[in-house]
Amino acid sequence: MTYGPEQPHFHWTCHQKWQSTSDGKNFQSLRVRGQQAKFPPFKPGRRVTEESLKEAYSWAITHYFRGISFDEIAGQNNLSRKSVEDRVKSIIERFPAPT
Question: 38 to each of 25, 35, 43, 51, 53, how far by Cα in Å?
Answer without folding.
Answer: 12, 10, 15, 25, 25
